[in-house]
Design brief:
By secondary structure, the protein is an alpha/beta fold. The chain contains six helices and seven strands; from the N terminus they run E-H-E-H-E-H-E-H-E-E-H-E-H. 39% of the residues lie in helices and 23% in strands.
Amino acid sequence: MKIYAVIPTGNRESEYSDVIDWCDKNNVTPITIATTEEAFEYSYGETIRSNEMNISKWWNMGLKRAYSNGADVVLVLNDDVVLGERWLSPVLAELEGKSGASGARHRTMIQGYAFALNAKDKIYADEEMVWYFSDDAVQQRCIAKNGFGVVRGLDVPNKYARSSEAFMGEQIAKDRVLYTKKYNRGG
């Protein structure tokens, strides 16, 4: 099975290095989206540059590359996620026959900092969601295709969760309104 990981990074070399080490241990091929020059300097393996602040576009750049490389599964990982030895197996089992899978955020919601997509379904992020709700839109697209599985009890630490809220508040509010309008869901 060919498993790729899309990993956007900007300034967290140490945390990114831990994610890369996890990928190496689990035979996962990383595709790095370097969002700064600093990140380009420390990035590992196949790297795509982008300085546009749009996480959905970053994910799509990596997804497109992974799909064209013949991936079977694509993981989308934050550069500050802490994946344990037992994360991949239950996510892959839950992904079987579905478009996407992750651990649980609020019981049934996608863990947007660590999720898996079934490459045969060619799911992409909604680029209108610039910063927040990108993961929720991916989950809705998966549900519409072949479903989305959630593994309850699979806790995955995300070191700097919500750290962007202070400087991205206006964009987050716009994303919330757009997500609610497009997907008829509360945010």
